[in-house]
Amino acid sequence: MGISNFPASLQPIIQQGFLEREFEQALRSRLGYRMVADRESFSVGIGETLTKTRAGLMPSVTTPMAASTNTNLDNGLTPQGWGVEQYTVTLNFYAATQDLNMVTSRVGIASQFLQNASTNGEQAARSLDELARNALFAPYFGGNTRVLTTLASAGPTIAVDDIRGFTTVYVNGVQTAVSAVNPLTVIVGSNPYSLISVTPALSDQSTAPNGISGQLTFATDVSVTDAAAGNPVVAGTASAIVRPSGRATTAMLQAGDTLSMSVLLDAVATLRMNAVPEVDGAYNCYLDPVSARQLFSDPDFRQLFQGATSTNPVFRQGMVNDFLGLRFITTTEAYVQTAGITNGLAVRRPIICGKGALIEADFAGIGAEDVAPKDALVSIIDNVAMVTREPIDRLQQIIAQSWYWIGGFCAPSDTTTTPTTVPTATNSNFKRAVMIEHIG
Fold this sequence. Notes:
Protein name: DUF4043 domain-containing protein
Largest sheet: 6 strands, mixed
Structural class: alpha+beta
Distance between the termini: 52 Å
Number of helices: 7
Radius of gyration: 26 Å
Helix content: 10-25%
């Protein structure tokens, strides 16, 4: 809709661009998980789901060729190939709106108009930040859970707190459902078992954020000793989770298991073992203010900077430390879990991310002319559309101010990076972030 369709009293405000600047400010004032996402444009006309393929590496060659085999057309060589893996991102539509009655709000029309734009921007920024957080954390919870109920006798099926990370395996780079043909090795208690089936619970009991409780069925019976309630259940391809004092599960955390420099260094070491690239020279560590406060109380951390607190940038400006290889970013969107898995103690979850830990796909058609004509009041700010609709009610009094975003987030896997290609690499499917769990 054109500006000319709006009341004359509002046209100067719109023409000066006040609304667009207010919206842009609100979006940019929010820092959080979306910062680590690599932005990609989702092209028009290719459907709503995009599958991307990542090429792997070939093993190193450390054995010299024998001269006696250097014969025939193949020179004694066996052709090799590199592996591939795929990850999928799906477009979704997110939007919100609010109305403004110009008559009932006439005394403060301009300020309320601007305030609506500002609150829309804050809501959009926070919504996208939480979507990014959820997409980032989900795979890094994967493959780490615990037994919920002790088996009365040895049997093939156990109940667990969270089935994420157990439902699929990668076959030739493609996620495939776990089955007898495509089993997954899982450590239950102290011994490995071959997982062949996963069933979500009819009534979810998971204590993990966005978790899904259910049952795991194995090819052989699980012993009563291994299937005791509280025992860890860890997939062979589980994501790395670091806990103080080497606690095996979230429920085993105790008072005093706080965030420390040694825990952070363990997480950084895991990322470096997997050859995860840094983000502009350091890994991003997202943590809430309580986690940050615990870190500054850690004796090792304080001793590292003893006598330099007034000049060191760790204490003065940005909580960025080259020695630890970390860039600390505090956020109020971090997961804080207080539901009774640790006797009422809160569980906090900082996460350390390297480059490529998260992908954001923004639909390229958001600002297309057939959707947002040249004279329309649609502003695209940070890939989010702000829409101001003229009054179209009978009395021409109610203006609608809305925002929408079309896109999706996903955390890509790194299954092709193995000890064969990178000798220090782990077997985790997802390697570009490490989650930390501690009490706080």
